[in-house]
């Protein structure tokens, strides 16, 4: 097998994979922090042989025919209901109150934000078109659509600054969730609500998946299959407590199809995609 460059973040499964696979596989491990800085060069230029990418980035890459193949391997996920917050010094809003309001998010295509909008749509009947989305960054995939109700903050202020100053009514955060005393969830009791939603719907809110360059897939398909097995071993080594938030293969289909339906409603794709449109080639590669 050939030598392959790889970019992964700091998730437990990524660390376990590298610990187990760095020897058997000839991997050139590249460090990119934060890992989302690797997503654009991966999908636009296939800058690496293997890279973690956000699932919405993978969806938009498939929509626009970029030279990457998404593998059906989830390596990051979270319960997303807690990610939508407000400033209690200015408001006390619930999900239905967001209609006609402004919500800050780093990028409209950011996966955490996309899942939050999916939750608002499917669980609360609030459509993305009912809200103005204040952003700082463009999509990782050049040419990916953004609806008319998506704006850039003219000063480039961060979602945190906008929320702190009351310039947006709510904002979306992932790992960068602020700790300020005034931060309050928009969705009441978000952790319990998220657990109940997962149990009721079976939808896992996947953040990141593994992708490979088309060049690697064509010149060394055996290595791609070894990635599949390596991540399976890494997952098996993790603690098994709680629900499975890292589905693989066909186990991802229901969650991905749910996301894809809302992604199109949100104006993030040019057409309604299916699981097979995004992950079909990857499924065939890994057998």
TrEMBL record:
Gene3D superfamilies: Periplasmic binding protein-like II. This is 4,5-dihydroxyphthalate decarboxylase.
